[in-house]
TrEMBL record:
PANTHER family: ABC TRANSPORTER PERMEASE YTRF (PTHR30572:SF4), MEMBRANE COMPONENT OF TRANSPORTER-RELATED (PTHR30572)
Name this polypeptide is given: FtsX-like permease family protein
Keyword Plastid assigned: no
Upper lineage: Bacteria, Pseudomonadati, Bacteroidota, Flavobacteriia, Flavobacteriales
GO molecular function: transmembrane transporter activity
Amino acid sequence: MFSRDRWKEILEVLTTNWFRTLLTAFGVFWGIFILIILLAAGKGLENGVKLDFGDTATNTIFMWTQTVSKPYKGLPKGRRYNFKVDDVEAIRQNVDHLRFVSPRNQLGGFGGANNVIRGINAGAFNVYGDYPEIIQQEPMDIVQGRFINYADIIDKRKVAVIGEGVKASLYDKEEEVIGTYIKIRGVSFLVIGVYKKKNTDGDSEEAQKEIFTPFTAFSQAFNMGDRVGWMAITAEDKYSISDLKESVFKVVKENHKIHPDDTRAVGHFDLFEDYSRIVRLFAALRLVAYFVGTLVLLSGIIGVSNIMLIVVKERTKEIGIRRALGESPWSIRGQILMESIFLTIISGMAGIAFASLVIYLINYALDSNGPVDMFTNPSVNIGVVSIALTILIVSGLLAGLIPAQNAIKVRPVDAIRTE
């Protein structure tokens, strides 16, 4: 039940010595402030790193061929081989729980010559022969026209989807792009779409300078036959590609008579493994933030407990008189606990409010000046604030418990005699 007299007494006790109360409150204020700022900074780093992944299908491996390192079935080591179109179908048929198996061929790359021409303009760009699924593994926004589809694959249509960087290099600013032709190594391709990459891996300009064509038309135009340069393989959401990749390698090794223990013949990059490592890293950082913030907060709580012990000692005579007049031990214990909880919650809420203001200002600065590499949108959710409030309430109880017990242990007669 609300008691105005009791709350008036609490305020009088806490305001009797303002400086001491403020110093005590600052310990709790600083502890909760540090806890929230550490968690927000960790979230900002996590958001920045995950933003680099964009909407990329992280449950993916990229696989290519390398030199065979072991002799097998009469074939020597040191030989080279190529993936074939049959490998793609064999993987689909023999490995369960795969969402996409996308074969890819590529022209250009590092140090490529001017392989794409339109009129008097020319440029060196990465050109890919792909299946339509690649847009779900390597997301991009189609800002004009459309992406390649299975009709293009079946009919081996010489069509191309170009990046905004390619458009800027080969076309005038207001020039119409859709329906025009570009020449890739002397072969004409009809432009059917323009894309903008979502995930740039920190290289925004180069990510927009790529060209996507149907896999079948690419193979026919550039005499690739049934060869496959490399593959992008994505597992279903409930399954880890890291667990399935050995089954994929086994199929490839059987098809190309490679020793089962040859770990160098199939090169790969496991995106899911890298992503999982990052997730584990930030989980560890959150634990460190909670640990450090809680320790700082604990030092503030100890300060509250110490000051309440001093307050109880200063009020020994008062407590003795109240006991002599018939006030129950529970009433006195409740008074001390309320003072402790009140001081803890008020200082803690001030810390939460100040931390929220700092986070708001940081986000405002980031929005105004542009994102910082690997750091964006530092924030804490309502669950973290709820945990902080719970910690404050429990801490306030613990901080006042020992002083409250000390207050009711003193015999009324002894307390009244105290000078």
